[in-house]
Amino acid sequence: MSTITKVETFDFRFPTSQTLSGSDAMNPDPDYSAAYVEIHTDADDGIKGTGLVFTIGRGNDVVCRAIESMSQTLMGRNAEELLDNMRLAWDLLVRDSQLRWLGPEKGVEHMAIGAVLSALWDIKAKRAGKPLWRLLAEMEPEELVSTLDFRYLTDALTPQEAIDILKDGQKGKQERIKHLLEVGYPGYSTAAGWLGYADEKMVEIAKEETEQKGFKQIKLKVGHNVDDDIRRLGLARETIGPNVRLAVDANQVWDVPEAIEWINKFQDFNLAWVEEPTSPDDIIGHATIARAINPIPVATGEQMQNRIMFKQYLQANAFGIMQIDATRVAGPQEIVLEYLMAKKFNKIVCPHAGGVGLCEAVCHFAMFDYCAVSGTMDGRMIEYVDNQHEYFVHPTQIKDGNYVTPTAPGNGTEMTVETAQKYLYRG
Ligand SMILES: [Mg+2]
Fold first, then answer.
1. Beta-ladder partners of 275
2. Residue 244 Cα, ligand 1 centroid: separation in angstroms?
3. FRET pair for 67, CA 20 to 30 Å: which of 145, 164, 180, 197?
4. Catalytic amino acids?
5. What residue numbers bound the domain in which 106 lies?
């Protein structure tokens, strides 16, 4: 038996606003940040569990305080009791009625719970000697489903349907694991697209990302000025040619009628998708936009507050591409539910990444999905941007435009606190 002895948080903030890396129509000057947590036990294996929440600067301290507030629930607890029954860990945090009042099941508290539950799953994966994607893919369907909370979901997905999906996912799983380890998982690049970049810089990076790094899709930020957007899209399409996919991202800047009018001016560029045209809370608005801009698909999800929103988007067929995020919801169990619902509704998932640690974290879920849920990579890819990877113990590697499959035990979020030390925010 081991006991949880320490829950430690770190407020890391990287001054990315100085280079305009990360700039878009809604967020002109982000400082990429991570509210990072380490959970320690007194086991003599020396394993610590890590998790994080990505933010873009101010407010990172609020997430850290929220994580700290949960340490009272965890400190002194029998670690195995939680690790062997992750549903209990979920209930302790997500169903804590006093904390739940602050959401319910959304916002800062929910994101903080996500970091803590991720850190527990990290310990579980490290103790099993497996990367998280493999731990999840190799759990028995009934065992994995027993960790999941179906409250509010059973009109869309029942536990039995989830078990059936996972059982079906067992067929051919070993071949897919082998393929994943050999080839990796497709990525796409957002590096060229920041709104603060001059045309020349955008073109230069677009060339490098596609010709040298091998990405088969790039994405540009749009939504500040329509004439600038059309000019940049023309330059980008000319640079990458007709065979590389081109997507755009408005980061929620438009109202619904404005989105429709604006996006319809992009019809000549053969876009892979338009991302976050409006508020992520506006399901009907997205459905309206999706119908009016056909055949350009609508993508959203990186700021979708919980599984209940995803359920409604899927039921309303309000988007074409579902974009999950690794640190927006309450950790691996909620993300697994999102993937199971996507499978049920036959929706393509292209995860959001790029912020601090998001590439490292989210690839585990896409890879789990490929092995054990959807069984396909068709039309699927994980966002990639080359920033802050050097602060991770096992940084994301890209080869020929693909994410190299992580093999180190754990969930990928462990940071090298010593090297990131100078970015610790001290107020
Ligand atoms: Mg985006």
1. 249, 299
2. 19
3. 145
4. 221, 352
5. 4-131
From the CA of 383, how far away is ligand 1's center (Å)?
Answer: 9
| Nearest in space to 371 (alpha carbons), one of 43, 135, 47, 37 | 135
Residues 237 and 349 in one domain: yes
Within a 13 Å sphere around the CA of 272, how many CA atoms are in the beta-carbon half? 23
Distance 159 CA to ligand 1 centre (A): 31
- Whether 146 is in a domain gets the answer no
Within a domain: 259: yes
Q: Is residue 235 part of a domain?
A: yes
Tens of pLDDT, residue by residue over 387-418, are 999 999 999 999 999 999 999 999 999 999 88
Task: Report residue 264 as tokens.
Answer: 């319809």
Distance (Å) from CA 276 to ligand 1 centroid? 7
Check if the beta carbon of residue 296 is closer than 8 Å to that of residue 317.
no
The per-residue b/e assignment along 117-130, b for 16 or more CB within 10 angstroms, e otherwise, is bbbbbbbbbbbbeb
pTM of full prediction above 0.85: yes
Q: How far apart are CA 421 and CA 418, in angstroms?
A: 5
**Is residue 191 domain-shared with residue 90, that is, in the same domain?**
no
Query: How many CB atoms within 10 Å of residue 188?
Result: 23
Quick one: CA dihedral 403, 409, 415, 418, positive or negative? Answer: negative
Assign 79 to helix, strand or coil.
helix
Whether 326 and 317 have beta carbons less than 8 Å apart is answered as: no
CA 270 / ligand 1 centre spacing (Å): 19
- Label residue 57 left, alpha or beta by phi (over 0 means left) and psi (-120 to 50 means alpha): left
Tally of domains within the chain: 2
Q: How far, in Å, from the CA of 228 to the mean position of ligand 1?
A: 19
Q: What angle do CA 322, 318, 313 make, to 5 degrees?
A: 65
Q: Distance, CA 317 to ligand 1 centroid (Å)? A: 20
The answer on 116 and 28 residing in a single domain is yes
CATH number of the domain where residue 412 is located: 3.20.20.120
Mean pLDDT across the stretch 108-130?
98
- Cα distances from 315 to residues 298, 329, 363, in angstroms, run 15, 19, 26
